[in-house]
Every structure is written in C-alpha cells, then in structure tokens.
Design brief:
By secondary structure, the chain is of the alpha+beta class. The chain is about 40% helix and about 15% strand.
C-alpha cells in the first residue's frame, strides 16, 4: 500500500468513539479497504500514435452532422513547419485512454521565444469542431478536454498531466515567434487499461454487424476497465454501482478479470454510508471516497445482484460471505418503503432516494420501481441460498409473493396486457421491462406487452443503452430470441453505422444531439453501461452468433 493511500485511508477511518458506535460497518471497513487495495490491478500501457491528419466536414447525414475526412498521413507532420499550418486535427484511428505527449524542435534558426498551443481532445468528430464557449452545459466546464500549453524552451518534450479519453485531437497555435521555424513530432499517447488478455474472436460465420458490435463493446469495456470499473474514461471517471453490475456481466463473458469486480465490491462496501446503505458512486482519486448523500434506489439493490453473479462466476465464497451483511442490509430499502398492500410507496421513496432507471425526464417510474424491487429480492434470496443463509432472510419468499400479487392487482391492465403505475397511465418500456425481469409478468404476458409497445404512438421509449440492456434481457426472458437479436443489431448497430468505435452514454436513434447536460460534446462517448452486447453475444451464442 503506497504512502499516499495509507495517509488518506487513516484519515477516512479516523472516527471518534461516538461515531464508531453509530457506524453500521465500523468494525469491517478497514479490512474491506485492505482487501480492495490488494485487488488493485496494474495498468497495461501501450504506445499509440496518430494515423491521419483529418478535416471535419459538415455533413447532415453524419452523426451530429460532423464527418472526419482524411487529408494526409500523420507522419507528414514530421517534415512540415507548424507555423505555416497554425491548426491541424489528428485522428488516432481508435478510441484511447491515457496520457498524451508531443515534442517540438526547430527546423532552422534557434528558437528565440516560447510557443503556446491549445489542444482539444474529442471522442467523436463534433468535439473537435463545435466551439466549447460560451459554455451552456450544466456540469463543470472543466470536464471538457481542452488544454492550453506553453512551451518555454525549444526543443522540448511535453506530457500533459491530465489523463485523456479521445480519438481526435485538434492542435491550434496560439502564440509563436515569426523569427524561427519549428515542427511537432513524436506525438503519441500511452494508452492504459487493466485488461491483459483478449477473448476468443467470434466464429467467422457470425453476422458481420454482430461482429462489429461485439468489437465495439469489447473496446468500450476495455477502456472503462482501469483501476476500478469507470463509468466513462472521459467523464465521470468513477465507479457507479449500476455500471459495475453491467461491466461485470460483460467481463465475465470476455476478459474474465474478476479481481477488478472484487475490488469494486469491496470499495463500495468500505465507503458505504454509516447507516449501512450503499452510496451509488465512489471517486477513486486522489483517495477513494464516496459521493456524499448519493443514495440511488435501484443501484443499491443491484449491488446484491452483482455480488450473487460474482459468486456464481468465481466460486469465491469467502468474498461473498464477507460482503453478505452489506447485501442483507440493502433489503431494508424495500421493507422500509413498502405499503401494507404490497406496493412500493413511490412518493415516500423519492423523498430519500434518487430513483433513476433512465435519463428520460418524462418517465414515470412507479411500476418499474415495483418490478426492480421484486427482481432484487429474488436475486438476493438466491444469493442467500448459495451461502446457506436463507434463515436470515426467511421473510423474502412471502414478501416476493405479496409484492407480485399487489403489482398484478393494481398495475396490470388485463384488457391491454400492459403495466402502468397507479398514479399515471403512462405506458413505458421501463414498466414492462421490470415487471418481466421481476417475474411479475409471465413469459406469455411479457411477450404480449413487449409486442404491444411497438404499436403505441406515445409510448415512453428508452433514452439510454442502460435501459436498452434490460429491454434485450426482457426479450430473452420471454423467449423472443429473434426480436432480441434484431433489437440489439438495430440499436447498437445504429451507433456502429454512425461511426462509433466505442458505445455511447446516451443514444436516441431519432436525435443525435440529445444530451442530459444541455451540451452534447459533454456526453460520454465511451460509456460502461453501453458495453453489454458483449455479454449477450457471448452468453447466448445460439441467438446472436448463429
């Protein structure tokens, strides 16, 4: 354990006697931190160099109306005076995450003054084309990847201190002396990931679009697998439980680096709230810490599912036993927010918890909340069975039955075959999905509901690959295999056809400019929750590889 981590850890664990008495996991946190640190992976570094100089053309048929057009090989920079160009855009040919460096040298007379450049890094072409200012976004302007660099002495080699996630880099010359010529050379990025081995390729008989989707999914997951499962290597660069769950699914069927999953499970437990409830996100640098008061309902419950899946994938009973108290405690979220009639008290829940499911602002989440709660109870009871702890959660079977009966009575419309909330008649994909995944709808009823969704003009559709993952799973659970393959090929294939080499945080096939942050260059275009085609394609080869 390095000195900096040790110092920070001591600070985090310096509780008073009074606070220790109130801390649900006081006696376990230090050990959990130690085990998390023991699983911290070494990063693999690979040198990447730019492939082409490109121009960004305005093209209304391209994603976000921007298309990168190759104009010269990147090696031509080595023999070109940059003072004559003043601005170039480089294409590295693939999405990379790491530290960028460049060298400057004179091509004639000695340098008599400093140079100043602006570097702008983009995951997609629009990021190096759309002006960042005046900035309209709702998150910190500092997330945008532009840096002003002053080179005081020429020749010199500069490495930018900030880790970056990009494919394209725009270089603008802001200040220079006209009395000497210079060029840029040795531009490169030391790309980092914790991935060490690549999975077997898909059979050559697999549909080409499925092969492309699988490759982009693997790239996405690889870029997000750093020293934790990051949600996005550009933004937010942190561990979220919802992303962890989906990344771990993909990892189990591809890279199989289970120690990273183990590290994340321990970190989340160690940094949980003093009440025993999990906080949704952990910021790893400079010292691991949770985002205060970030209580996210379904993420806390999905931790239990991730722990159960980890146990099934690895057989690591020691870790599962270690973290079982955390999983057991999260079940109180359901117990404490359920009415006597078996329905979740949605209004009460929202007073304390962030209920997410998707970025669609108009989504009514009551029915999805009920379905997710039942799903989590079922999966948690399975975890208890695997560990032999059924007696500790002996109320769960009856609770599942009660909640299922209540949902069918109050939320299911026999005439339409659709589920809605009790306080809204909105028909949404999310409601049907989670009633199916929770086992509240039978497979036949699920088929009817999912088929009906395609005929409803004002249905509330998924706005993210996150919810779309659960849609694919719901189709599979209902036996709608061909529909699942077509939906995956259409949705993620749509991103591929629009130039994606990694998958995006937000994707609406009808709106390339959708952004929950009020500025689409701020979107994450390599985002963990979008990687799960890897899981589907490789877990269900009879469906997706045929």
């Amino acid at each position: 354990m390095n000195k900096f981590f040790s110092t920070g850890l001591l600070g985090l664990l310096s509780f008073t006697t009074a606070s220790l008495a109130q801390d649900y996991y006081a006696n376990a946190r230090a050990q959990w931190f130690k085990k998390a640190e023991a699983c911290k992976p070494a990063l693999t570094l690979t040198e990447k160099r730019p492939q082409h100089i490109v121009e960004i053309a305005n093209d209304t048929t391209a994603f976000q109306h921007c298309r990168a057009v190759q104009v010269a090989p990147a090696t031509s920079l080595d023999t070109t005076s940059f003072g004559d160009k003043k601005e170039i855009i480089l294409d590295f040919g693939e999405h990379i995450t790491g530290h960028f460096s460049f060298a400057v040298r004179t091509t004639g007379l000695a340098a008599d003054g400093p140079l100043r450049f602006r570097f702008t890094f983009g995951e997609v072409p629009a990021e190096v084309s759309v002006p960042f200012d005046p900035y309209p976004g709702i998150l910190s302007r500092a997330w945008l990847q532009d840096e002003v660099v002053t080179v005081m002495h020429v020749p010199d080699t500069i490495t930018l201190p900030r880790r970056l996630a990009f494919r394209y880099v725009k270089i603008e010359l802001l200040g220079y002396s006209p009395y000497y010529q210079f060029n840029l050379h040795d531009l490169k990025c030391m790309a980092s990931t914790s991935v060490t081995t690549w999975p077997e390729p898909l059979p050559p008989t697999t549909d080409p679009i499925i092969r492309q989707i699988d490759q982009a999914g693997l790239n996405t997951l690889k870029e997000c697998m750093q020293t934790v499962y990051e949600d996005g290597p550009k933004r937010d660069q942190r561990l979220w439980i919802g992303d962890l769950y989906l990344e771990a699914l993909g990892n189990t069927y591809s890279f199989k680096q289970h120690d990273l999953t183990k590290r994340c499970l321990y970190l989340l437990a160690a940094l949980s709230d003093t009440t025993g409830h999990l906080l949704a996100t952990v910021i790893e640098q400079p010292v691991p810490r949770a985002q205060d008061k970030q209580f996210l309902f379904e993420y806390a419950l999905l931790y239990n599912v991730a722990l159960k899946d980890y146990l099934e994938a690895t057989g690591d009973r020691t870790t599962a036993e270690d973290l079982w108290p955390v999983a057991k405690k999260q079940l109180d979220i359901v117990r404490e927010n359920m009415r006597d009639n078996g329905l979740m008290d949605y209004e009460k829940l929202e007073e304390t918890w962030w209920v997410f499911f998707d970025w669609r602002e108009e989504l009514h989440k009551e029915a999805a909340t009920q379905g997710l709660a039942v799903f989590a109870l079922r999966e948690s009871y399975r975890l208890a069975e695997l560990l032999g702890h059924e007696k500790e959660v002996a109320d769960l079977p009856a609770l599942i039955k009660k909640m299922t009966k209540a949902a069918r009575k109050h939320m299911y419309n026999l005439a339409t075959g659709l589920f809605t909330g009790t306080t809204s008649e909105q028909v949404s994909y999310a409601s049907q999905i989670w009633m199916i995944l929770g086992g509240i709808a039978t497979p036949k009823e699920g088929q009817r509901a999912l088929t009906a969704l395609r005929t409803i003009p004002d249905v509330c559709r998924p706005g993210t690959p996150y919810l779309y993952h659960y849609y694919i799973q719901a189709l599979l659970d209902c036996g709608m295999r061909q529909e699942a393959k077509q939906a995956l090929a259409t949705y993620w294939g749509g991103m591929v056809e629009k130039g994606a080499d990694t998958f995006w945080e937000t994707y609406d096939p009808q709106d390339d400019f959708l952004s929950q942050y009020n500025f689409y260059p701020l979107n994450s275009y390599c985002h963990a929750w979008s990687c799960t085609p890897v899981y589907f394609i490789r877990k269900y080869p009879e469906v997706f590889q045929r």
